[in-house]
Amino acid sequence: MEETRKFKKYIYISKEVKPIIEDYCSQNNITLVTRFINEYNLEKFMQTELRNLNFVDYLIIDLRAIENLTDDDEIISKITLIRKMYKLRVIIIAEGYKHGNVLLGKIFNLGIYNIITATDDVSFKEELEKVLSDEGMSFGNSIKYKLDNNVISVNQTTKIIKENFIKVKQTVSIGVVGTERHIGATTLAINLTKYLSELTNIKACYIENNNHQSVSYIAESSEAIRFEDMKKVNFKGIDLFSKPKNMSDILSNNYNFYIYDYGALNEMIEEEKMSFLTRDLKLVVSGNKLWELPNLINTFQIIGTDINTYLVFNFVKESEKENFRISLGEYWKERTTFSEYITEPFEVKNKYFFENILKPYLINTDVTEKKKRFNWFGKRGRR
Questions:
Q1: Cβ pair 21, 44 in contact under 8 A
Q2: Closest to 43 in 3D by CA, of 11, 16, 87, 79
Q3: pTM over 0.70
Q4: Which one, 16, 132, 210, 309, has least CB within 10 Å?
Q5: Could you give the domains of the chain?
């Protein structure tokens, strides 16, 4: 058995054949199981070609083979799933990627240190030798990819949107979830999409990432414009998608912001919860009634303490807000807001809250800092 395990096995995914990898592995008794040479949507690829990785020691993924058809968060979600299901080493090839790249930062935060960014053959081979060694590339070798969660790095993908906005990330994904049904998650998700869609030259869409079929009901309105067999609907100026089978269809529209409505957290399977946790920004909608608090406590156990997560409470009495906010503890009381009363989801409410949480992702270069402080907890007197 010891002798057999000397000969390790690997699979690699790339846009092109990599002789440097194949030659090195051949010389070091690492057997090629198969190579996949093309561009892929990682989610669909896992469902079709990459369904069994048992007995594979190394999975080598060239980001150039998946980045055009898979958004960053789906890449993170699927890599997380692979590592959960199989005992193997994931090796990332990211030739030419720079320090400060958001995707590499997320990959590093998963605990994946085996990352190759070298572009010349000599350096590439040196890094390849490290990632395929018994120990693998060390934390110290890869610490350069770590991103401080409090800092948004503006890298080479930074865009200027006309004269108004500087985007600090190519695409931003936002997950919205309710602690239970009928608590207002869909209303908030649609309202946020409407807010973003009204900004100059910003494209945003709502994605129904649950089984509630709200988009189907909206599609029945005489005001709705239906596309692609009703999978996409435009209503009151925003694009809404029914639950997608293949995210690449939506990604091809090149939206700047993707708002995912996950529905009720207590109805989600583990993979859906993992998907929610990988979003750039996460909003949790809850109430504070006695019968609503157990689901809120369960939610805290799932999300932990995440600086990119905010709590939004609906239907809280004005007289209860301050005491309830304090009861959430030091960490969450500063990440909590009480929603304005929304009777029409397609009319923007909570504007100041949205402005505040989106500052790290979208900077308005035409607006000077206001002297009045943003009233985080929804009290009167903002004008």
A1: no
A2: 79
A3: no
A4: 16
A5: 4-145 (3.40.50.2300), 159-364 (3.40.50.300)
